[in-house]
Amino acid sequence: MQATQKESDWTPLSIPLDLAQKWVTSWIDADAQGAAIDPTEMRAFVVRRADFMELLAQQDTEFIRMYVGRKEDPEIDHLRPCLVLVSAAKQKNVQPDAPQPELIVDLIGPTIINQDGIVTDVDYKVFDFSHCCPPECYTESPLFIGAPDERCA
Predict the structure, then answer these.
(1) What is the CA radius of gyration of the chain?
(2) Burial of 54 (0-12, 13-18, 19+ CB in 10 A)
(3) What one-character-per-residue DSSP string does 4-68 give?
(4) Which of 24, 27, 48, 99 is least enclosed, having the fewest CB within 10 Å?
(5) What's the predicted TM-score (pTM) here?
(6) Residue 38: beta bridge partners?
(7) Chain segment 57-101, per-residue pLDDT in tens
(8) How far, in Å, CA of 153 to CA of 148, rounded?
């Protein structure tokens, strides 16, 4: 079965860095917190093209880095998996004299970019606009693999 949502549910959401850190920490610490992670609760994510375009439109974005997190969902009694997405670039392209020029660095928050001697202040946003499967599943996909015990089949 495929869940459907209202168009308003797909509004891109820029989130504060501290909230993104909380969600990513929740994923990393899930085992230590005694939270059993059921693989059927995080099969896939769907993101609108327009949302990727908004992220890619941020100045100097060469890559998108995706962090896995868990966030509160008022409709369920546990945390729902999510993706926290940020712009990223090779370090040499935002800081020409960088010690690790090929390192891909995250572009988050207020940042000073130095390109060709031109210094620019940029405020990069952190985004959460992914929708997890379930409930946003396409069960007819050849990549949708049913659980052995028929959960979320």
Answers:
(1) 18
(2) middle
(3) ---GGGG---EE-HHHHHHHHHHHHTTTTTT-PPPGGG-SEEE--HHHHHHHHTSTT--EEEEEE
(4) 99
(5) 0.80
(6) none
(7) 999 999 999 999 988 887 777 788 889 999 999 999 888 888 999
(8) 9
Structure-token pair, residue 20: 């993104």
Domain definitions of the chain by residue range: 7-133
Residues with Cβ < 8 Å from 128, sequence gap 6 or more? Answer: 13, 15, 20, 23, 69, 71, 82, 83, 84, 85
Length of the chain: 153
Q: How far apart are CA 98 and CA 8, in angstroms?
A: 42
Q: How do beta strands 131-133 and 80-90 pair?
A: unpaired
Q: Which residue has the tokens 């459907």?
A: 4
